[in-house]
Design brief:
Largest sheet: 8 strands, parallel, barrel
Number of strands: 15
Helix content: 40-55%
Structural class: alpha/beta
Oligomer: single chain
Radius of gyration: 21 Å
CATH architecture of the largest domain: Alpha-Beta Barrel
Bound molecules: iron/sulfur cluster
Number of domains: 2
CATH class of the largest domain: Alpha Beta
Mean pLDDT: 92
Strand content: 15-25%
Number of helices: 15
Length: about 450
Amino acid sequence: MCYSIPGRVVSIDGCISIIDYFGEQRRAVNEISNLKVGDYIYAQGGYVIDAVPDAEAQEVLALWKELFFELQERDQHLSGFKRMDKRAGDRLSLILERIVADEEEVAEEELLYLLNLEGKEDIARLMQAANYLRHKHLGNSCCIHGIIEFSNYCRQSCGYCGISARNKGLKPYRMTPEEVVKAACEAIDKYGFKALVLQSGEDSAYSIDNLCQIVSGIREREPALIFVSCGEVGLPGLQRLYEAGARGLLMRFETSNSRLYEQLHPGRRLDSRLEHLRAAFDMGYLLITGGLIGLPGQTREDILGDISLTKSLQAEMYSFGPFIPHPGTPLANSHSPAAAEVLKALAVARIVDARNAKIVVTTSFETLEKDARRQGLSAGANSVMISLTPDALRREYTLYPDRAHLNESLENQISDLLEILSDLGRAPTDIGVSHTAS
Ligand code: SF4
C-alpha cells in the first residue's frame, strides 16, 4: 500500500527540485546528495524523502496512470460550483461568486458573515464554493498522515483535555523509544505511510536525547517525513530535533483569544506558544497548527481570528477540530458544537488560504460526526490522519471520550478511507510545496 505517487525529477537548482507527476510539476526541497535529473522520488510536504528505483517507480506509475486521470475527472465533476441567479439581496451568492472567481480579497466582515450562516442550504453552498477552490488550486491530492501517540502522560492541565495532569482516572502508558521506532518503521515499511506524526503529552520522562533517538532511529531505517508533537519542548530542543531529522511540528495554539487561552491553560501564555511556532518555522519546520471549534466562551469572531492566525503563521496544514467535553475535565458539563460549525470553519479556512492550505479532517471531528471525512473533504479539506498507535494503547489516549475508529483494525481503517477517497475522486498523494521552496 502506498500513500504517495513517485514523481520524476525534471530539474535541480541547489536544494530545489522540480518534480513531474503525470504532467503536473511541483517543487520539492531535496536533501538527498546524489539525486539527479531523471530519477524517481517520493515527496511529502514539499520534501523529497526517498529516491525510488526506476523499475519500482514504473510499476507503481503503471498501476496509477489510468486511475490518476479517472480520479481527477471524478473530482472535477463533484467539485463544480453551481452558479445561482444573482437575485437582488442575495448577499451569499454575490460573495461566493467573487470567491470562486478569485476576484479580490474577501473582507473580514464577509468571512464573518459566512461563519454566521445558519441555513442548511446556505452552508451547503459555502461548502461547495470551498470545495471548488480546493480543486481549482490544489487538484485532487489528499495527504494521509499516520499518527503514533506514544505516551498519554502530560504535566500540563489544559481545561479541555482528557489526558491532562488533573485527570486522575486515566490509565497511563508510555512506549519505549525502541517501541516507537518499531511501530513507525512498521507503518512505513508494511503499510506504506510516508508522513508520520509522533505525539505525546508534555511528558518529562522523555528527554530531548530520547526524542532525538526516536526521530533519528526512524530516519536511519526508513524514509519518511517526521512531525513531532510533544508540546513546548523549548527552542534548543526544537533545534536538536530538527538536526535529528524531524521536519514538521504539530502544535495547535487552540485559540487566538489570549484571555480564553489563559483561562484554559493555567499559568501559560499564548505569546509563548506562538513564539515556539514562529521559531520552528524559521528553523525550517513545516507547521500543523490551528484551534478548537466551539470552546465555551468562544465567539465566531474568535474562530475567524484563529483561521487568520493560522495563515499568518504560514502553516503547512490547518488543524481545526471540535471541542468535545471530557468527563474528567472542568468543562465536563459543556457542550460540543454542531458539526455545521466545524464545516463552516473548514470552508472559511479554505477561502482564506485557497492556494496553499492543506486542511485536515481531524479525528475529533470524526468522533463528533460519523460522516466527517466525506463532509470535511467536501468542504475544502484535503488531508486525513490515521492513528497507528497500538490498539490496546489507543483507547487510553483519551483527549476526548468515545474517540472514532477505536474498534477498527488498521487495515479496515485504511481500506475504508481509500474507498471514501475513491468515491470523491481524491488521490492519496502528497505533492505539496514547501515554504522553503518558494
Ligand atoms: S492539550 Fe496537550 S499539553 Fe494540554 S493537557 Fe492535553 S496533552 Fe497536555
